[in-house]
Amino acid sequence: MWERTLQDLIRGLRANKSDESKFIAQAVDEIRREIRSKDMELKAAAVLKLTYLDMMGYDMGWASFNVVEVMSSARFHLKSVGYLAAVQSFNQDTDVLMLTTNLLKKDLSSTPSDIAVTLNGISHIVTPDLGRDLSPELIAMLNHSRAHIRKRSILALYKVIVKYPEASQNGMGRLREKLEDQDSGVVAATVNVLCELARKNPRDYLPLAPQLFHLLTTSSNNWMLIKIIKLFGALSPFEPRLVKKLQPPITDLISTTPAISLLYECVHTCIIGGMLQGASGYALARTCISKLAAFIQDADQNLKYIALLAMVKIVPSHPHLVAEYQETILASVDDQDISIRMRALDLVSAMANRDNLQSIVQQVLSHLVRAGTSSSILPTAAQSLAQHTVPASPTSVKPTIVPTQSPAYRLVLSQRILDICSQSTYDNIVDFEWYLSVLVDLAYVANVNIGSKIRDQLVDLVGRVKAARRYAVKLMVKVLSDDTFSGDGGDESSCAEVLWAAAWICGEYCSELTEPQKLLTYLLQPRIANLAQDIIAVYIHAATKVFGFWATELAQRWDDDLLPEIRNVVDMVIERVSDFNSSPHIEVQERRTLYSCSHSSGKIFLRTDLNLKTDSASKMLLHHHSTQSQNHGFLKACILFGHCSLHTNLILWHLLHKRACLYRTGWI
Amino acid sequence: MIHAVLIFNTSGIPRLTKFYTPLHQAQQTIVQKIFSLISSRPAGLCNFLDAPELEAFLGPQDDADERWRVVYRSYATLYFVFVVDGAESELGILDLIQVFVESLDRTFENVCELDLVFHFDEVHHILAEIIQGGLVLETNVEEIDSSVQAAAKARRESFTSANPLSLGVGGGAASRNGGLQTPLGWLTGKITGVGAR
């Protein structure tokens, strides 16, 4: 039998790159044979190869029993292989884990090398059951003679506590003792574990504050100091006296430490630990922010990034201090590094207020515009930006190249604009007409799936802000008359939902329209068949309202010369609406039916006016009745007719009034 | 805590994958995703990967403690990536990556990618002296190195006692006595310095 070593496997993989899967299939077959061998060396070698393949994505769960066999070898070099395989491939559901309890116990009382490997393994594979069974041994191991073992036990105990919380009752006392351990590495490991535990249950660890404070003021191990500071950051929100006690040493550290990592953690902890309140806190806040601002302006991009992270957290409590650095922060939104841009966006969103909202939104929108889409709408968007921007901001937008314009990023930008502006029910917006135009621009340039949110905001705004309705209607007419959206109804990122809003707004506030009959042609043009069904439905509904409004208006200043015009419009409307006869969507059908009912009746009356024979007119009427009554929508249409077609009723009324026809009673 | 340690090369092939927190999605996909985002970043940008495409993986936006961070450094043809949460100091992790690389360098002497390829289990053992269960065990390179050497010595002694015929023979014997070469014989060859690379 040709036995291949791990090295052979790796060499073979490298040599067979072209038919890798075939080679691997062969290798796995060999491994399957080897792994069943009684020879532990061979078995272990097979397990090692399998572990390597696991890294490449080939599942080794089927060999878990063999892995346990290798773990139980008395030979340390083989045991290591077994534990490595276990650590890489076992998960909480691996059934062989329940076979390992005694093995782990045995290994925990073996040589220090065995113990080390076992503790490392336990940290990975411990389950609640294993935790329960092993915690006595582990807690005893906290007092092992070797520091290395004590360190590992402490870290392993943490994972055990996570899976089996009851272990903390017995373990906590011993853990606390370890803070006084002779070995500084052991103390550091203890602090590490306490930091993790305290983040979940801060109050339970408040009693440790004095010991930790002592360590803070006496240690020089930067790693440990960082962890202690972080620990205090978790504890101090729950103990105001702790804040007072901590302010002096932390202030001291901030001004003296050469280690930037420690400096940053101190600043960060001050912010999140609630240490910046009150008069003494204010001075500390100024110091923190000036340090962070220095980081943002530093050439080192890493410092810039973490400074932006921390600044976001200080904005809620000290917005004016952050606002001093507004220019620098806004400049970061244009940074070529997407990580920095993302965090800068967070920060400007938090900083947005009435004064700077427009410049912020303008800057973010310009990112979307600058994306270089092939849309011909770009000039319009840029124009409206120019028209509606309040030219007060001194911020000069640097012409930096924005390299990545991935859809995910564009979505973030668009979403961010919507969120900033709608915060606290649009509290920050001063000029609603400006914002309405921003929403429309966003619909043009976004190119991501944000249409429904824009639609919702448009409708919401127009409902809330009465003064903006006339302008809104003007904008919406422009949108409806534009071809951009109606063409590609199937494309998710076309923001066609904004047409829904446009039609609905025009219908609802049709009194603000200047040329209703012209809008009708747009609302009912054949192209709309490409749109989504719910949009078509609202189009037809809006067209009803617009027509009704217009006809009422005409009726009030009726002149027989207007008859040809109204007849043309009615003809057009009926013709277009009947195109939707075959629409499968119930909403469209309903609207269509309603429309054709009301308009056919209108049409009949007009035709009657033109001296058609009465009986043929009534035949037409009856014919219309019968065809409609087959349609379920007819009945509904009649009810709707009476309810919402007030305008249409008025038309009829006026016409009848002039001509004193008697059809009405029979019709309704 | 540290949730994952990844090493992959500039073509995206993983050289080491260690997950301290099990992932709910396929490990390969996340490695590939991180690789594609990192490889498109030019040098000189910050070492923190924070792209919108990773939002789902990184966790909730609002809770800074729970949100994960991807910290990476590139060395020659390799990317070293650590995925950590709010309990770890960002700059500290950058230092830790450096410590890891230095530890590899101590053991392999002028470590290069090929060392990681052929001795991937050694790399795991070194990493295990620095991080256990996602928590930092030791940060001093000297300490780490002595622990690594102690463990390697124990493995070597265990091997030689199990395979007495290979004692003192090393890699040279492997070629002379081909039939005696055991599946883990390469282990001896490396540690005695013969045919190490």
For the structure shown, list the relevant keywords.
heterodimer, A: 668 residues, mainly alpha, Leucine-rich Repeat Variant, 36 helices, 0% strand, extended, disordered C terminus, B: 197 residues, alpha+beta, Beta-Lactamase, 2 domains, 5-stranded antiparallel beta sheet, 8 helices, 7 strands, 17% strand, globular
Structure description:
The complex is a heterodimer of chains A (668) and B (197). In chain A, 71% of the residues lie in helices and 0% in strands. Chain A has 668 residues and is mainly alpha-helical. Among the domains of chain A are: 89 residues, no CATH class; 88 residues, Alpha Horseshoe (Leucine-rich Repeat Variant). The longest helix of chain A has 24 residues. The termini of chain A are far apart. Chain B is 45% helix and 17% strand. Chain B folds into two domains: 138 residues, Beta-Lactamase (2-Layer Sandwich); 42 residues, no CATH class. The longest helix of chain B has 22 residues. Chain B is α+β, with helices and mostly antiparallel strands and 197 residues long. Classes of the chains: A mainly alpha (668), B alpha+beta (197). Chains A and B meet through helix 1, helix 3, helix 5, helix 7 and helix 9 of A and strand 2, strand 3, helix 3, helix 5 and strand 7 of B. Chain B: This is AP complex subunit sigma. Chain B: It is a peripheral membrane protein. Chain B: Keywords: Cytoplasmic vesicle, Golgi apparatus, Membrane, Protein transport, Transport. Chain B: It is found in: Cytoplasmic vesicle membrane; Golgi apparatus.
